[in-house]
Amino acid sequence: MKTYGLIGYPLSHSFSKGFFTRKFEEEHIAGCQYETFPIPAITELPALLAQHPGLCGLNVTIPYKEQVIPYLDELSDAAANIGAVNCIRLKDGKKKGFNTDVIGFRNSLQPLLQPHHNRALVLGTGGAAKAVMYALQEMNISFTVASRTPGNGTVAYNSLDKAAMEAHTLIINTTPLGMYPNVDACPDIPYDFITSRHLLYDLVYNPAETLFLQKGAAQGAAIKNGHEMLILQAEASWDIWNG
């Protein structure tokens, strides 16, 4: 039995387990299972791997996307550049880290882009933001990073004026603001300056339409949540494990 799984903590709601269990059933993939491994500290990873010698691949979620790197033998170029790993291939005794968030985000965003979506505003500075920035660089889209607290090349939400909002027609929320159960939260940007030329993309997928997306839609903007990105990054993991 080939075993794949997810490490993180806590793992109360795992998209990955449901996705892969369904995939194995619907595509008649025999001899495979997907498990969740909630480990309270990343230092427990070597013991986990020793207990499960049949593991062929792992997904990595918060809070270990960055912490896992010292435990790996090798990194893909994207993972090394981003400094975050969400997929590990276990093959021939080697542990190689990849970042499939980049693939999922890029392939989900690309079909929505209009020629005028050439400057992006990235909301947030965490690991997800780094993957988004890497993908934007790949697509030759310039970007500005905004967060609650400015500094280190980041502008503050409250410094965004009409000109800044009009110049950045692609706005990407990489923060967890608005995620269930805190559905009344959203990044504190001036939504009044959003127009029908804007495209708002939220990495959050639960609820399907966050307050961030609702406010954009109310101004006539195109909107997209992170559900397809999750599916595409999961499929990319499968390709890496079996490629």
UniProtKB/TrEMBL annotation:
Protein keywords: Amino-acid biosynthesis, Aromatic amino acid biosynthesis, Oxidoreductase
UniProt-recorded Gene Ontology molecular function terms: NADP binding; shikimate 3-dehydrogenase (NADP+) activity
Pathway this chain belongs to: Metabolic intermediate biosynthesis; chorismate biosynthesis; chorismate from D-erythrose 4-phosphate and phosphoenolpyruvate: step 4/7
Listed Gene3D superfamilies: Leucine Dehydrogenase, chain A, domain 1, NAD(P)-binding Rossmann-like Domain
Claim: Nucleotide-binding is one of the keywords in the record: no
Pfam family, one: Shikimate_dh_N
Domain Shikimate dehydrogenase substrate binding N-terminal: 6-88
InterPro entries associated with the record: Aminoacid_DH-like_N_sf (IPR046346), NAD(P)-bd_dom_sf (IPR036291), Shikimate_DH-bd_N (IPR013708), Shikimate_DH_fam (IPR022893)
Membrane-spanning residues: none
GO cellular component entries: cytosol
Domain of life, per lineage: Bacteria
GO terms under biological process: aromatic amino acid family biosynthetic process; chorismate biosynthetic process; shikimate metabolic process
Protein name as it appears in the record: Shikimate dehydrogenase
Species, as recorded: Chitinophaga eiseniae
